[in-house]
Amino acid sequence: MFLQSESGYCMPYSAEECDPKPLLGFGEQKDPKTGKTFFHHGLDLTANGAKLLAMATGKVSGLGNDPVHQGYVKVRYGHYEVEYGHVEEVYAGFGMDVAAGQPVALSGQMLHIGVRFNGEEINPVEFLGMIYSNAMSSSMVGGDAPEGMKVQTDYDKDLDEIGRLMVRYLPSYMDELRTGAYKPTAQTEDALKNILVQGARKNYYFECLPSVTNPLGLSDRSALLVGIVQNLIIGDFLNYLAVRHTVFLSSWDESQKKKMLNEASDNSGFIDPLKDFRIDVRSFDVPRVASVYPDNAGIRWWTKAWFNNREKGEDAIEISREMAIKFIQGEISKDAWLERYYPKQMSIYHNAIEMTRKQLLGL
């Protein structure tokens, strides 16, 4: 039921030119003159001579006059066919291709809109709602949920930061999913399959007309399902950041970071790019250790480092007591410490990483 349109979407009239007011809705109605009940096959609006526009990429499928709607023009958009009734002038010929925003007719004082999907009548209000949603969303990057749906996730307090992380890392995440360099955990895949199957069994899908931001036609009833799916997808994205970039949410403490890293390493399904390659480099991951120690009086302090598991290690370097305390308390990272006191040895470490990167890219 989703309407695709290469030319975009627009409402059937310009808001600047026409401020329509409903006269008669779709379905069971009472005749305003006789009071008798009848079924109305469309939507009647005030139009006041407004220019009528094509709402999407389509083709003119009908022109003519009838006793009820006088002059009319019909335009087919995919599986939908829309009729404008009570028109005074027609600007498009039968079989003519039209694009969103292209004038097709001139209304009288009143406009009748009828909509069919695969030949069956539907409420024009629902169709116009989909067109409006598509028109508003076509220049935006999707949407998290149907408009008005209240969806809760475990990450609501971090959504702004997650959005910024996605701006930076989502392209590489999607690319590695596509190439198979990274894949979600088996638990994530199984959970997604199960929740989507449950949604189908409970008839959550296509309760309303689908749109750009709501392609499955979900209603408020499916908010719980949408929240679970968002939890799974956001969780997998954070799992990817932990495994591939060692990046975590700023709100997480060290125990949360450690837990995420452990779970990511065990379950992520991340594929080691070196697994199937024979690469002649000295060391892709150079083991490096740093420590500090005092003299017997605790007045003079030294730092010492070991690279590549060398038994002897590097020459010790004297440092201040204040610097030693900062290192012991974790206020200075190990690599930053090594860069400061053993720059030549760290250059070998960086060269090994660069050599590996170039050889991988050259394969």
Salient structural properties:
alpha+beta; 9-stranded antiparallel sheet; 23% strand; 363 residues
What features would you describe in this structure?
The protein has 363 residues and is of the alpha+beta class. Helix content is 34%, strand content 23%. The chain has eight helices and 14 strands. The strands form three sheets. Strands 1, 4, 5, 6, 7, 8, 9, 10 and 11 form a nine-stranded antiparallel β-sheet that branches. The protein has a three-stranded antiparallel β-sheet with strand order 12-13-14, with helices on one face. The protein starts with 21 loop residues before the first strand and ends with a helix.
The computed structural class is: alpha+beta
Note the main sheet.
9 strands, antiparallel
The end-to-end distance, rounded to whole angstroms, is 45 Å
| Poorly predicted regions | 139-145, 268-283
Continuous helix count: 8
Beta fraction of the residues?
15-25%
